[in-house]
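Issue 218. Parser rejects a valid record. Input:
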Amino acid sequence: MIQAKDTRRRKMDLRKLLHLDDEPHKIAGGFAVGVFIGFSPFYGVHMLLALALAFLFRLNKGAAVAGTWVVLPWFAPLVLSLGYLLGRFLMGEGFGLPEIRSLEREWILKNSLPLLLGCSLIGAGAAGGSYIAVRRAVERWREARSQEGHPGGQ
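Output the parser choked on:
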């Protein structure tokens, strides 16, 4: 029963995204910005950051907020771990998680750069893919709606 409600809710959210009254590239761009921010380690301010970037780049703000929900909280440890490992690898530090002795400023600064690098790269890839998928979905939805005789394809 819960699973059916979840599926129904996701379909409603997708329909709301497709019905947004904005240009397809603005909807897709807003969603992609939200996805990118969703992969960042800045938990607690994802929506604010996504809204700020959507405002700055004149993208759809509703789609930006929706994009932040792609990385659900229970996936965050996996996303952050993979981002950190990728960042360490790209910085030539090999694979492996750091030993946590204490959360001193020096330790945090040393380990923040690989985390930000890896999460940014994963987020950029996910954002690029989501931009393409959402833009195509919005364009196809509107084209189908206009062929059905709905005014403006909306």
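Fixed in the parser; the record now loads. The radius of gyration is 18 Å.
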